[in-house]
Write a structure and sequence with these properties.
The protein has helices at about 15-30, 75-80, 100-105, 120-130, 145-150, 210-225, 225-230, 235-250, 255, 265-270, 275-290, 310-330, 400-415, and strands at about 50-60, 85, 95, 110-115, 165-170, 190, 295-300, 340-345, 350, 365, 370-375, 385, 385-390, 395. With about 450 residues, it is an alpha/beta fold. The strands form four sheets. Strands 6-5-7-1-8-11-4-12 form an eight-stranded mixed sheet, sandwiched between helices. A two-stranded antiparallel ribbon has the order 2-3. Strands 9-10 form a two-stranded antiparallel ribbon. A hairpin with a 6-residue loop joins β13 (about 385-390) and β14 (about 395). α11 runs parallel beside α12 (about 310-330). It is globular and about 80 Å long.
């Protein structure tokens, strides 16, 4: 097999609707022969505390000093007009003033204020945060979602109609995907907008085609398929019939219902917020409720080089509603203990505001120190890990590298660090870097991991 090389100029191909559904259906019905991973290492796995992950990917890099690491004492050149952080329901923890709902739920999540990798490029930083590896090597490594798809998906007995790794709604870019694991472990990106009715999921809901039209199409297919009528017991015909039934179950049956938000109460949808992000949070809850092990919400708009504070006043209240309601909804349904919420982006933003034109109060890229947040799935709430300095420019205490956070998530899912990945060059490769790879590692986040 030809090795996969890291090529920053190469564009990632977008899956068609037909191909996305075909892959999922054929895999579920046993018609695809995939590379197999040895799961002997899983026998020694730590006890899994989590069954699923909802990753809230803040594409573009969220400004840490405006959200989870406010620095009002640093002055206006750093905090700008957002100079009044608010107390949370956990004594001693303050967060940004535009997050009152999340402030009331600080006992459910922990903040990491000392994330670091030092890289200021969107794509390369994204690769580091989502794989734990450094860019530029011979192989493109899989992201967390693809590793979970491998270890908790079809190869591990997953039977769901919906693929085990779902992205709401657009792919994050070519470094959010399967790397050398290949097409089988790429995410199923829904497309569409869950705030619209209907939520037109690519490959499931065809724009302009009604349910009645879909049913009439199927009836016509059965009338024309004389081979299936004459040879119903033929193994190949039976397999095709099974795949067809699964496909239509995705379109007209239980598979499609998970994306139908009209089944939810109007007041709950209002609490999430009738925005693309808010309704994506609701869809994510419905997906993990159905057993999907990994869901990413790709939440863009955070690359605030210009007019950062105007953008924060628009996006942070939206984020506040969606995330706070998601946590409470999962808690009310008994799902928070088994579902990890992972919030963060590829880096933070420059703590010192760029007031001059053309930035007009913007913030640039900042990989020296930034924030992440985790909740549920065995992670304790009401705590802060690490600290940045007085101006939010450097790590002051307890550096946390992306690989440390990723390793902690794997541990909560019961995936051992030594679990082998099927390397295309036949070399021994594990889900977590080995010492000879030279990756900086500070250690698991044991301070917030339930024993």
């Amino acid at each position: 097999m030809k090795p996969f090389y890291f090529d920053i100029e190469k564009q990632r191909p977008r899956l068609s609707r037909r191909e996305a559904i075909r892959r999922a259906l054929l895999a579920a019905s046993g018609l695809v022969l995939a590379d197999h991973i040895s799961f002997r290492a899983l026998a020694a796995a730590p006890a899994a505390r989590a069954k699923a992950v909802i990753q809230i990917w803040m594409w573009g890099g969220p400004p840490h000093v405006d959200i989870f690491d406010p620095k009002p004492e640093a002055g206006t050149d750093y905090c700008g007009p957002l100079k009044t952080p608010i107390e949370t329901n956990v004594s001693g923890i303050r967060i940004g003033e535009l997050l009152p709902l999340l402030a009331r739920q600080a006992d459910k999540y922990s903040i990491i204020r000392s994330m670091t990798h030092g890289n200021n490029g969107h794509e390369t930083a994204s690769y580091i945060v989502q794989t734990g590896r450094q860019p530029g090597g011979r192989l493109v490594f899989p992201c967390v979602g693809s590793v979970v798809s491998l270890t908790r998906g079809y190869d591990a007995g997953y039977k769901g109609l919906i693929p085990p790794y779902v992205v709401l709604t657009e792919p994050q870019g070519r470094f959010d995907e399967a790397g050398f694991l290949g097409e089988r472990y790429k995410p199923f990106a829904t497309g569409g907008n869950p705030a619209q009715t209907p939520f037109a999921v690519e490959g499931v809901v065809a724009p302009g085609v009604t349910e009645a039209h879909q049913k009439s199409r199927r009836e016509l297919l059965h009338q024309l398929d004389t081979l299936a009528q004459d040879l119903p017991q033929d193994p190949q015909v039976a397999a095709n019939t099974k795949a067809e039934n699964m496909a239509y179950d995705m379109i007209l049956g239980d598979g499609a219902k998970v994306f139908d938000l009209s089944q939810e109460k109007a007041d709950l949808r209002d609490r999430y917020g009738r925005t693309k992000f808010g309704q994506s949070c609701l869809v994510a809850r419905r997906l993990v409720e159905r057993g999907i092990p990994y869901v990413t919400i790709n939440y863009g708009g955070w690359d605030t080089h210009k007019e950062n504070f105007q953008t924060m006043r628009r996006l942070l209240p939206e984020m506040d509603k969606g995330m706070a309601t998601l946590m409470q909804d999962l808690k009310d349904r008994g799902l928070l203990d088994s579902t990890i919420i992972w919030w963060g982006g590829e880096f933070g933003r420059t703590p010192k505001v760029q007031w001059e034109a053309p930035w007009n109060g913007g913030r640039g890229h900042w990989g020296k120190v930034f924030s992440a947040m985790v909740a549920g799935g065995g992670f304790k709430g009401g705590q802060v890990i690490g600290a940045s300095d007085a101006k939010g420019e450097e790590v002051k205490d307890r550096p946390v590298y992306p690989v440390d956070l990723i390793g902690s998530i794997y541990a909560q899912l019961g995936i051992p660090a030594t679990t082998k990945l099927p390397n295309p060059e036949g070399l021994p490769t594990s889900v977590m870097p080995q010492p000879e790879e030279g990756i900086k590692i500070a250690g698991l986040l044991k301070e917030i991991m339930s024993v």
